[in-house]
Amino acid sequence: MRKAIIAGNWKMNKTPDEAKALVEALKPLVAGASCDVVVCVPAVDIAAAKAAVKGSKIKVGAQNVHFAASGAYTGELSADMIKAAGAEYVIIGHSERRQYFGETDTTVNQRTVAAVKAGLKAIVCVGESRAEREAGYTDALVEYQTLIALTGLDKNDLKNIVIAYEPVWAIGTGLVATDEQANETIGVIRAAVARKYGKAAAGKLRIQYGGSMKPNNVKGLMAQPEIDGGLIGGASLKAEDFAAIVNYDK
Ligand code: PGA
Fold it and tell me: Of the residues 213, 216, 236, 246, which should be mutated to test ligand 1's pocket, given the most ligand atoms within 8 Å of the CB?
């Protein structure tokens, strides 16, 4: 009953011209997709990507957003700015932002609220490090990260939220969570959301898996009942690979 959503996270790759070329290569390959398809591009590529997706079902997203509406925040972009540039989605709280740019659960929450209130759809990332998994903290951590991120939002806002469960140890490493590990942890996240927002709302919330999702492992992951899509890094930079993931059900 939940429509799958496959989103590419291009990270810091592609100029506007390169973004246009990649989207144009992707368009015919995903024309028959049955899931939602999103490309989250560098902010300077949003306008080019938006122009290039015209006539297709591909949506454009950004990779970060500031929580203030405007002001003295050198280098930052507001939700209204990225929306006006053409983004419908925005990734928030990616582990690389938490690790390298001081993102905290509190700022993830502030950015999520700002994005949703501005009419963007937020792809909120949560996930444990290897040490946290080995210490047995995975469930508590992802529950906490998810519920903090959603603080201040009500259950009607959840339709504009996608959670991306991305175990940090699986990102860009080629190590993928097993289908069962990913399914189980996503189930833990959904149960936490159900306790706070009710079963019906949690049942509609889309929760992706991310971390070395590739054409050769997407089918097994997507066959799991809790997994509603993927957030794809490396494999989203090649049209054929990303399309093969998008077309996992073909
Ligand atoms: P990966 O990245 O697919 O390259 O592991 C996923 C992500 O960081 O969102």
Answer: 213
What are the tens digits of pLDDT across the range 156-171?
999 999 999 999 999 9
pLDDT tens readout for residues 77-125: 999 999 999 999 999 999 999 999 999 999 999 999 999 999 999 999 9
Alpha helix stretches (DSSP H) within 60-104: 79-85, 95-100
Q: Which residue owns the Cα nearest ligand 1 atom 3?
A: 233
- The CA distance from 195 to 46, in Å, is 37
Interval 212-234 mean pLDDT = 98
Q: Could you give the domains of the chain?
A: 5-246 (3.20.20.70)
The 3-state secondary structure of 149-208 reads: HCCCCCHHHHHHEEEEECCHHHCCCCCCCCHHHHHHHHHHHHHHHHHHHCHHHHHHCEEE
pLDDT digits (tens, 9 = 90+) for 10-52: 999 999 999 999 999 999 999 999 999 999 999 999 999 999 9
> Is 9's C-beta closer than 6 angstroms to any atom of ligand 1?
yes
**Residues acting as catalytic residues:** 94, 166
Distance CA 211, CA 75 (A): 28
Residue 160 has a CB neighbour count (10 Å cut-off) of 16
Token code pair at residue 209: 């898996």
Query: Is the per-residue pLDDT at 1 higher than 90?
Result: no
